[in-house]
Amino acid sequence: MFAAVMLNLGLTLTAGALIAFVSHRRYSGSTDDLARLVGFFLSLASVFGIGGAYLSCRHIQNRAPLWAIPAAIGTIAIVLPLASSPNIAPVINWIAGLAAACALISTGIAVTIRVKLDSRRNAEVG
């Protein structure tokens, strides 16, 4: 489980940093803007990563359905912009992209580890 959590958090933070850099290059802002974008997207990625890691571990233990991972991350991605100021409208597509990337990362990790564990259990039983 520890490996799943660390892998999940590392990959989601990497996705957040990549989206921040791509967003910065697209709008060609200053270096101060880059620092703010990196901070913003890394904080969102950590929220998505923590939620995804928790639900991934629950799925690996057969205690949560797989669809719960993208549903939870998607709900967070929808509620965050609605609960904040309207100034977030220009980056809503970047937030949606980050949420989709984090949902795919978490779901992929959960499926991969669950399949490997199930195949080991089947090999031991059979």
UniProtKB/TrEMBL annotation:
Keywords assigned by UniProt, alphabetized: Membrane, Transmembrane, Transmembrane helix
Transmembrane residue ranges: 38-57, 64-85, 91-113
Protein name (Swiss-Prot/TrEMBL): Uncharacterized protein
Provenance organism: Stieleria varia
